[in-house]
Amino acid sequence: MADLSRMADAIRFLSIDTFLKIGDGHPGTPLGAADIVTTLYNRHLKFDASDPTWPDRDRFVQSNGHGSMLIYAANHLAGFDKISIEEIKRFRELGSHCPGHPEYDPEAGIETTTGPLGQGIANAVGMAVAEEKLRARFGPDLCNHYIYALTGDGCLMEGISQEVIELAGHLKLGHLIFLFDSNHITDDGETCQAITEDQAARFRVAGWHTVECDGHDPASIDAAILLAKADPRPSFVTCHTVIGKGVPRIAGDRAAHGGKLVPQDAIDAREALGWSHEPHVVPDDLLLAWRAGGTRGRAERLAWQDRLDASEAEVKAEFQRLTASKLPDGWRAPLIHRKAQYAAERPNQPTVASSGEILDVLSDAIPELMSGAPDLEAATKHKRRLAPFTAQDRSGRYLHYGVREFAMGAMMNGMAAHRGVQPFGITFLVFSDYERHAIRMAAMMGLPVIFGFSHDSIGIGRNGPTHQPVEYLASLRAMPNLNVFRPADSVELAECWELALERRNGPSAVICTRQAVPTVRGDGTAENRAARGAYVIAPASGARQATLFATGSEVQIALDARKTLEARGIPTAVVSVPCWELFAAQDKGYRDEIIGRATVRVAIEAAASLGWERFIGEDGAFIGMSSFGASAPEDELFAHFGITADRAVSAVLERLDAKEEKRVPETV
Amino acid sequence: MADLSRMADAIRFLSIDTFLKIGDGHPGTPLGAADIVTTLYNRHLKFDASDPTWPDRDRFVQSNGHGSMLIYAANHLAGFDKISIEEIKRFRELGSHCPGHPEYDPEAGIETTTGPLGQGIANAVGMAVAEEKLRARFGPDLCNHYIYALTGDGCLMEGISQEVIELAGHLKLGHLIFLFDSNHITDDGETCQAITEDQAARFRVAGWHTVECDGHDPASIDAAILLAKADPRPSFVTCHTVIGKGVPRIAGDRAAHGGKLVPQDAIDAREALGWSHEPHVVPDDLLLAWRAGGTRGRAERLAWQDRLDASEAEVKAEFQRLTASKLPDGWRAPLIHRKAQYAAERPNQPTVASSGEILDVLSDAIPELMSGAPDLEAATKHKRRLAPFTAQDRSGRYLHYGVREFAMGAMMNGMAAHRGVQPFGITFLVFSDYERHAIRMAAMMGLPVIFGFSHDSIGIGRNGPTHQPVEYLASLRAMPNLNVFRPADSVELAECWELALERRNGPSAVICTRQAVPTVRGDGTAENRAARGAYVIAPASGARQATLFATGSEVQIALDARKTLEARGIPTAVVSVPCWELFAAQDKGYRDEIIGRATVRVAIEAAASLGWERFIGEDGAFIGMSSFGASAPEDELFAHFGITADRAVSAVLERLDAKEEKRVPETV
Q: A532-667 has which CATH code?
């Protein structure tokens, strides 16, 4: 078998030759961590490049995604079809499978999108939770693999790293192994400019097993990973490396991080490493060795397949369902039943309380549903009957994240990318900012994660402006591929939950109130009215003169205003808008009918106005927030900020008068 | 002098009586940490309640802001005028100085707004940096105080805590002292559900001095704080406490965190603590003792004032200027000079490069300007000539934050709240999500922090969608009290910098390109055209038929489109919109004139469309992004996503045709 160091050089030269070709790229990591990844892929990582999505494969996450050529080169060498040499050469070209940073594509051996530092390792921690869950449920015959994450200094400086390090240690995720590419260099230069602490000591405090190795000596790396696998704790392997190793001009220097290579670098590196091959040519012996490494897992996979086939039909079907990320048959029925109950009973309660009740129903129907609420289980009413997932008991389905919202978001992404778990996590809407970038990554990856939020407006009252979202609905609606739901009542909430769950190619945000809201929908049939994003919840009694748009707790205010307007002989429709994104996807005819441009239009939402012109045009009125909130009882706040039915009525009347005036001169 | 434990009970009963009165509040912290704060205020904290904004006072931050009654009760007892007993009774009422969570108000002894966990301690670290800066510049005679922050478990679980703990240890901020209210309880119950690690060990790894004490024994607390002050490192004082101490039903229980008190609790607490006074009555001896504590610092303050008065006139004036958060005379002239240069030289370069050049100019003009770019100094071109601020040299004005964006944001808020430093920090726009909640807090507090961003669109090219902001402009524009600037070129950038700096009552975001953009403004007089938020940068040659709105790098595209349209005989104006917020503040006449409703309107921005209807109405065209970006050379991306002058031209022509068609039937 070829020498692992030579095999690592194959990564180095694929990288160097590609960087030179396009005049771009981050050389530091692929050159510096080539030996780590080569040893991992060829001695430890359980995978079969001919079946990249084998559910029991080990997962490898390159958290320092800027060095993406490392994983592309390794995956090409190991034989992943999608990463051909042509794709390598198309590095960072439009449509290439080798984009600037690794993008989630399990068929290409890319387990998650990385680049925004800290989140890759957090995804890995989520994957390790999913692995534990599946192993607990199906036993080690069907699920028994490791999660490896390569991390640089950058990921470890981001705060999210500490959140997940603490959780992984606390939960004793023994199948989790971090490989630390420790080269003491970041973009700004020596790490000692910004950090003095001993990273391994930090992990030990958090309950991890730690070990170190020479990151350029395959035997040393191999031995360290062996120890890491043997330890029942999560392991942190410090690999001492030289950034940019192999290119003399930049090795060990900050220029290696993201600096450009020059042609002489390729010549010098060839000289230094004794590499005589043409650009992008990997000698046969090395390629053969790599390809052998890429199928090392085949026998294990076939044995696993035999075990799966030998399982009871039900077990096999269930395992396959879970790892295909499909929901179980019949998950919808109990939800629709619960919805019908709400429509019949018409409770006056916080939608977050109803969401907790719905979670209970869904937890029975969807055994893979796992929830969590970072230190807010009481306030969000979302733990309820689920037992905790702990170091001692992996059967639990509630994760005590602690006060760590960003960790929750990124871990949920890891669970969804791993498959086997349907993640749901809820916190106050105002803390969505803490996990916001994880929501973005879920949207970019198209993962079916459900982000729950409560305490969605000034309706929280006395806790004051720090806890009152104002700009959040707009900021979430601005994000591509995220469906943002703000249901009006318990019935609509059930519909939004249904839409969020059935969406398998992207995340949803389900946003609830803390304060009690009446049930405004008396109809609870199987038809999902929220599915069109906006709909007439109360029609005009005659030819529609006014349209009131509202979401969430403000739908009731719109209905109150409508009553007054109708009493004054102004036919008024109320449109509930639980989801802007779904509405935008409707045909123009439906949208025009809902919007009612010829009518006087008013929107009511206890939030910033940004974007509402889509519904109300340039002459409509917006009744909502234009500043941060305040600390006071919620009823007083709605009055103080003028979010009232009276103001909606006045806004309509003023605009009708103005229209009338306009019309008069024309007719006289 | 009265017994400190009895004085602490005064905090407890003000809290209990207030919670019972309003039926709301978080009792755990004011009851559990009353002894810590009482000992701190009456034995260590250097302040004078009769002059709350004395610049050399010690700062006290209650980072666990949900327990706000603690600081309100202490400040009332210590004699801060603003926190009268009437205000205490109006706890959480509209307009009260005692809102749900503490809100920045130095005159009331509230040094920063807290509530969103983790940020208070991060603000404190920023304050400690500001204190070191002032001490280095003016000597300990004028600046020599401590920064204390009370923290619970929640703040320490948030990732930002690790970021600032590492930085504070690394920077050896010896005047920083964290008091850890360690009661092993959070909202979800026992902390062991979510954390197993030894917090003090974690701080030791980061280079802190640690000490512990009995958090209910004033002598023990006193001794620990003495040790903390004496140590040259930042200190972490673990105070072992019982949450909710004093109310037997909830003491030591999660019910203490945010649970409601019942009347029997007040009776039982009075029994348990031997307190026989009516609600809200503090016996004279205790009040006198507290008031004596509240003015302990008076002699020190007067001595300090003497030293200040005895200083050279220039030194005194400069110190007073800095602590009044005023910019130096003449800061504007060199900036305007630089702007004139840009207008004359018309460089074709990234606006982030110009921003780096402008920072150089401003650094000379504004000695308190301190900058930082979390591990992106090369990419953002913003370190330049500034020397680093380090543990060894406090004269530096560049802070190596490491890869810690959230820490940067929250520390800048602390610096601005402390005064003496004008903070500026820059990172990629896509990482603004990481620091987003700190931006929110700056906006809520009205602090003059400048948040710089670069790499503002798909214009970054090959690095791909993870690093290409799409939704960010909209999400920042949604935030109240934040001015969001996206300048078109170097000239407009200089104007935006001027507007950001002169704004003393709120933060600004200044957003730059990575790619080169031409200088589109040839006029560089002292007039600040960006000041109106939007203006006609290229007028129509005749009666305006079309209006093209654009920001940033897309202004050039709009100008190109205008050229084509004008050549086709269509008088077209281009409106540059560097700041929506400033435009919204203009009078209606100006806004109407700019908007040009009678014209065909098209907006061009390489970002999400949310909100642009304000400019283009319901029939206008938006040319921008509706999905995440992609990895490819930037020119290809603009073509791929159709953000081109050709598309703008077509959009105008289509709409003109449609208008024409509409008009025809009317006239026939």
A: 3.40.50.920
